[in-house]
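Hi Y.,

Following your request, here is the sequence exactly as I used it, all 71 residues.
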Amino acid sequence: MMQKVQISDGVASQLYELAKVEHISATELMEQLVKAYKIEIAKRNELKEFFKPYQKDMTGFKFSREEANER
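Below is the corresponding structure, written out as C-alpha cells. Let me know if you'd prefer a different format.
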C-alpha cells in the first residue's frame, strides 16, 4: 500500500540533492534512510535493555567532599 508523506520544501530539496549525488531515486534514498533509522533504534533499545540492570536511582544523592576525604 502506497502512502503519501508531506515534507517541507527545504527537506525535499535536500532529499533530491542527496539522491542525485548517490545516483539513486529519492524514493530509494528514503527507503534506505528509514531502514537505517530502524536499525539504529533497534541497536539503541538493545543497549538500553543491556544496561537496565546496572542503572541506579540517584535521586536524593548528595556528594559530601568532607565525608569522601575522611575515607
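Residues 26-51 form the longest helix (26 residues).

Thanks again,
Q.
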